[in-house]
Specification:
The chain is mainly alpha-helical. The protein has a single domain, classed as Glycosyltransferase (Alpha/alpha barrel), CATH 1.50.10.10. It contains 18 helices and seven strands. α3 packs parallel to α6 and α13 runs antiparallel to α14. The radius of gyration is 23 Å and the shape is globular. Belongs to the glycosyl hydrolase 9 (cellulase E) family. This is Endoglucanase.
Length: 502
């Protein structure tokens, strides 16, 4: 009798727990919609009539005028008003990859994802329109960072910075080539003419990046460093660009290029923004600066499915990457907060959980289709385990954390209110039509009031390693959103929208 009663109690407890889990399940469709909407808040240039982030208005309409080149458009990378083309191109590449992998799960949001990609690629066509030059940046970062102004008001120098044959910048050029190649595949069916334009430009810019090798640190260092200084060298971007061009064209030249250079890449030491070595080796890195793990995962699909090419070292490095992430792996090189958020050295941390989880999810799909698993010494990692780890990171971001706080603005009941973002923190043009000059925004920056404009979908830099979060504009490492945090999250949310029980 006692055993029967206890069994019933246990059953009720289990049923209650299941109900709670179901109630607590995240609205991934809503989060997906918001994660794409965020990019509208980062737009530079003449905004279209379809603009949904209505507190944003036209800005930087004369970019490039002083040199007679139309450089209007593109994205502001974070909470400032500079167009840094290196991280912008990476964000575009990953957005395109998200669509290529998970478009069938995006539903009505696919249209908006394509708009987000095209906003960038239209700009990159402009930035690569002058033969022998690739524009790497628009705006003086020091002047911009000295002011707290709305993008609609900014009166700081909009200086264009370019790389050239004499002053090369292979990393920014090759990343733009990768973005154009990946995006050409996205538009291949819906707009074949545009797709062809993107691919043709990609091949030209890749050739430029490869023929005139050098880092933009050397040519544009005073303006690109320390903001987006290239610490990993430019060879990873060249291989990344070649890998995407091979995927887009299937031409053996690009595959041979990757194979012939991949072993040279392994010799590179990847450094973080403080100049100290990463722990996991180059195969473990993926982000706006380092493309190493992304290269291995990207080419692994064909290698796993048909084995037409030599898989060494791509599959072994892809497996080693997985083993640096899994919490139970004996070769784990990342750390986790007590609440379960992944941490790596360098910069705004939330870029790491989103980018690395995206790679886990993509690789899990490839492994599953090929019926393969990963061995981390004596630990076996199945595709479902990779998906589970990625989902844990997404759920943490959306609110499953010690603070019960969503780190996506506008999602959930509790989210960051004082993000480090000029446009969001200053009154909109509609509510304050008068010009706010360089220092006129300072009182809004120092205010403890919530931001008046919600940058819906923005994911901030995130909590500290102890899961604490300072909701303060001054703590920009924690409170600043970036395009390269959101870009990989788009693909993750699209997948979990259709596989919430994974």
């Amino acid at each position: 009798m006692v055993r029967a009663t206890m069994t019933r109690v246990f059953s009720v407890v289990v049923a209650t727990m299941v109900m709670i889990l179901r109630v607590a399940s995240h609205d991934y469709a809503n989060a997906l919609s918001k994660s794409i909407l965020f990019f509208e808040g980062q737009r530079s240039g003449k905004l279209p009539s379809s603009q949904r982030m209505n507190w944003r208005k036209d800005s930087a309409l004369h970019d490039g005028d002083q040199i007679g080149v139309d450089l209007v458009g593109g994205y502001y990378d974070a909470g400032d008003n500079v167009k840094f083309n290196f991280p912008m191109a990476f964000s575009t590449t990953v957005l395109a990859w998200s669509v290529l992998e998970f478009d069938k799960f995006m539903g009505p949001e696919l249209k908006h994802a394509l708009e987000a990609i095209r906003w960038a690629t239209d700009y990159f066509l402009k930035a690569t329109s002058v033969p022998g030059f690739v524009f790497a940046q628009v705006g003086d970062p020091y002047g911009d960072h000295n002011c707290w102004e709305r993008p609609e008001d900014m009166d700081t120098p909009r200086t264009p910075y370019a790389v050239s044959k004499q002053y090369p910048g292979s990393e920014v050029s090759a990343e733009i080539a990768a973005a154009l190649a990946a995006s050409s595949m996205v538009f291949r069916i819906s707009d074949p003419r545009y797709s062809s334009t993107l691919l043709n430009r990609s091949t030209m810019i890749f050739d430029f990046a490869d023929r005139y090798r050098g880092s933009y640190n050397d040519s544009l260092g005073p303006w690109v460093c320390p903001f987006y200084c290239d610490f990993s060298g430019y060879l990873d971007e060249l291989l990344w660009g070649a890998a995407w061009l091979h995927k887009a064209t299937e031409e053996p030249y690009y595959w041979n290029y990757v194979v012939q250079n991949i072993h040279n890449l392994e010799k590179n030491v990847v450094l973080n923004v403080d100049g100290t070595p990463y722990e996991g080796g180059s195969f473990a890195e993926f982000g706006w600066d380092a493309k190493h793990a992304g290269i291995n995962i990207l080419v692994s699909k064909q290698l796993l499915m048909n084995g037409t090419y030599n898989s060494d070292p791509f599959l072994s490095n892809a497996d080693k990457f997985v083993c640096t992430i899994l919490p139970e792996s004996p070769t784990k090189s990342v750390t986790y907060s007590p609440g379960g958020l992944l941490f790596k050295p360098g910069g705004s941390n939330m870029q790491h959980p989103t980018a690395l989880s995206f790679l886990l999810l993509v690789y899990a799909s490839y492994l599953s289709n090929a019926q393969k698993i990963v061995h981390c010494d004596d630990v076996v990692a199945t595709p479902s385990r990779l998906i589970q780890v990625a989902k844990g990171q997404v759920d943490y971001i959306l609110g499953d954390n010690p603070l019960n706080m969503s780190y996506m603005v506008g999602y959930g009941e509790k989210f960051p209110q004082r993000i480090h973002h000029r446009g969001s923190s200053l009154p909109s043009i509609e509510n304050h039509p008068e010009h706010i000059d360089c220092k006129g925004g300072t009182p809004y920056y120092t205010s403890n009031d919530p931001n008046p404009n919600l940058l819906i979908g923005a994911v901030v830099g995130g909590p500290d390693v102890d899961d604490s979060y300072a909701d303060s504009r001054a703590e920009f490492v924690q409170s600043e959103p970036t395009t390269y945090i959101n870009a990989p999250l788009v693909g993750l949310l699209a997948y979990f929208k259709e596989h919430s029980s994974s």
